[in-house]
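As a next step, we paired sequence with structure tokens, yielding the entry below.
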Amino acid sequence: MEPICAPATPLLSSSVAIVRVTGDALGGVLAPLIKLSTPRVAVVRRLKWDGYSENALVLYFPAPKSYTGQDVVEFHLHGNPLLVRRFLEYLNYIGIRMARPGEFTQRALVNGKQDILDVEALQDLMEASTDTQLRQAQAREGKMPAWIVEARASIGYWVAQAEASVDYGEDEDISLDMSRLKTWAATLKETFHVELRRSASARWLRDGICVAIVGRPNAGKSTLFNALAGEERAIVTELPGTTRDILEAKCQWADLPLYLFDTAGIRKTDDPIERIGVARVDPVLQRADLILHLVPVVDGTPSPEILAYLEPYSEKVMVVRNQCDLGVSQGICISAVDGNLSALEEALKQRFFGEFAPDACFGALATARQRSLLTELIHQAELILGICSNTPPEIPASLLQGAWGLLAKLTGEDRADMALDAMFSGFCLGK
């Protein structure tokens, strides 16, 4: 792996800019620029190249005790973007090429400094936009979940038992205890089920919940939008049809990461601008994870016209009665103007998290890749449970090896089928 470099801080005017370099035997590669000194001790060095000179703070982390497992050197320069670019050009000249996005972390994975779950948690940490998403990512970073450690140990035990019965069963009178195997497989299956349910809930913490607010004009949609967003984003007046375009907000409300959409009031209108606003509602409804149909208490029942409009999306529509300060209604009843939204909070958490509180999902696996492999592990456990008692030992041995392989894919120990370049393409340079 040839030496690589990248800015580890944005190329913006700032007090300090950091350039990272990693590779094997960097002492020789960087010899035209600097003589590396004591590891892990920050030193100030005068760097000179191509007529430029710079006082830089230099940190040297020799292999294998570094982020990538190779030598790593950090140069802390003055934060002038032009200076950084000229320095990077010189590093390229002496044989240190620019890194691809995420290539530092990719090398850490390849060199065994991180596992794939760490890498996925790191990507989530870099992309987090709410406090809840930060805590979710940090709970998964830097440690293997205990249930994976236990599952790997127990599967390894049964793989060894099954292989022994295949290789030495006839000569040494070794047989597989099918009753014990099935009892264990049932327990393992339940563990996978629990983690899959946690993962399905944790997904909403990681990805956020896309919520569209719809209803007739003056139903209180913009008031609710502002209350959830925590700021006055939408104009609120007593005049119907105030909202004529789609308003968006990314926010955290009640520990839930939300992507909010305030839409134009749904009605027939001769106003050409308002008609355009209503026409733009459909694409938002297609994208939404949840549609809040806001119906004022004073309306009695929802508008048949709007119900018909929402019929194609009925599975993700939640009717919410607004203005409960003006009357009593059944179902989810709120007062957006007073900030009385507790019924909505409870309904959202029940719909998206069910048996788990949001903070109970911290540390759970949350990506589509992870959920897919958990589903496959459940199926593999079911196959083991379906084995007949007189089945030749080669069958359970093969199924157990399959479970072991799936768990190895989950943790990244089996990288044969992983598209690493695609996985790391979403990372920033220098990470």
Q: What stands out?
A: The CA atoms of residues 185 and 381 lie 6 Å apart. The first strand starts at residue 4 and ends at 7. The two ends are 16 Å apart (CA to CA).
